[in-house]
């Protein structure tokens, strides 16, 4: 398991991931309403790391833009 610190930017025009040192900035198209952005973050990260969505878990920050996620590698 690997833990990453990410910052989520919801309502972005394009879904993408930028790495700035240890911090990953994850841009998602979904709004930060009813967990839609969290779901989109999991999908974007799963595609980026080429793993299943079930292999990604949000450890801390469910309702925050800064999150700590755990990836099963």
Would you mind describing this structure in some detail?
This protein is of the alpha+beta class and 73 residues long. The protein has one domain: Conserved Hypothetical Protein Mth637, Chain: A (2-Layer Sandwich). 19% of the residues lie in helices and 40% in strands. The chain contains one helix and five strands; from the N terminus they run βββαββ. It has a five-stranded mixed sheet, with helices on one face. A hairpin with a 2-residue loop joins β2 and β3. The protein is globular and about 30 Å long. The N and C termini lie close together (6 Å). The model has no long low-confidence stretch (mean pLDDT 94).
Question: Outline, from the CA principal axes?
Answer: globular
Q: Note the run of SSEs as H and E.
A: EEEHEE
Number of helical segments?
1
CATH architecture: 2-Layer Sandwich
Global mean pLDDT: 94
Sheet with most strands: 5 strands, mixed
Write the layout of secondary structure elements.
Layout: E1 2-9, E2 16-20, E3 23-27, H1 36-49, E4 56-60, E5 66-71
Parallel strand pairs: 1-3
Antiparallel strand pairs: 1-5, 2-3, 4-5
Write a concise synopsis of the structure shown.
The protein is of the alpha+beta class. The chain is built from one helix and five strands, in the order βββαββ.
Task: Name its key features.
73 residues, 1 helix, single chain, Conserved Hypothetical Protein Mth637, Chain: A, five-stranded mixed β-sheet
């Amino acid at each position: 398991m690997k833990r990453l610190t990410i910052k989520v930017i919801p309502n972005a025009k394009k879904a993408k991931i930028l790495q700035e040192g240890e911090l990953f900035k994850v841009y998602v198209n979904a709004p930060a309403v009813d967990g839609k952005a969290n779901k989109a973050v999991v999908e974007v990260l799963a595609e980026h790391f080429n793993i299943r969505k079930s292999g990604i878990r949000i450890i801390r920050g469910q309702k925050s833009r800064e999150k700590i996620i755990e990836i099963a590698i």
